[in-house]
Amino acid sequence: MKLISFTIKNYRSITDAYNIPVKGKTILIGPNNEGKSNILSALDLAFKTINQVTTIPTPSGRKIFLGIGRRDNYRWERDYPIQLRDEKVNVSTELVLEFEFNDLELIEFNK
């Protein structure tokens, strides 16, 4: 399984970072206080969440995904963008990871 891109929305200083590609070795370069550490923190949170998810097979062969994540992985006071806290709109944090599977991994994933 290989991470090929990710999207971060409304996490710490990042409001919109769509489909950031990951190829081989990826380096984050930029000035101080531009969000490089927040990108890494968001990826860490996403991977922790994935590792804390379990699946339950149904009689029809489908899978139900249950999040069993710890509540302290994400804290609104720390992780939700400050500039959006006073907004009247209900906006959520989104972390989307896109993976590429080889044939064997795809078979295992679909079991």
What features would you highlight for this structure?
alpha+beta, two-stranded antiparallel ribbon, 111 residues
The secondary-structure element order is EEHEEHEH
Give the domain tally.
1
Query: How far apart are the termini?
Result: 15 Å
Principal-axis shape equals globular
Q: In percent, how much strand structure appears in the residues?
A: 25-35%
* Low-confidence sequence ranges: none
Counting DSSP E segments of at least 2 residues, the number of strands comes to 5
- Main sheet: strand order: 2-1-5
Major sheet characteristics? 3 strands, antiparallel
The helicity comes to: 10-25%
Structural class by sheet pairing and helices: alpha+beta
Q: Specify the number of helices.
A: 3
Q: What is the radius of gyration?
A: 16 Å
Overall mean pLDDT: 85
Outline the secondary-structure elements.
Elements: E1 2-9, E2 17-21, H1 36-51, E3 53-57, E4 63-67, H2 76-79, E5 94-100, H3 103-109
Give an overview in words:
- Helix content is 24%, strand content 27%.
- By secondary structure, it is of the alpha+beta class.
- Strands 2-1-5 form a three-stranded antiparallel sheet, covered by helices on one side. It has a two-stranded antiparallel ribbon with strand order 3-4.
- The two termini are 15 Å apart.
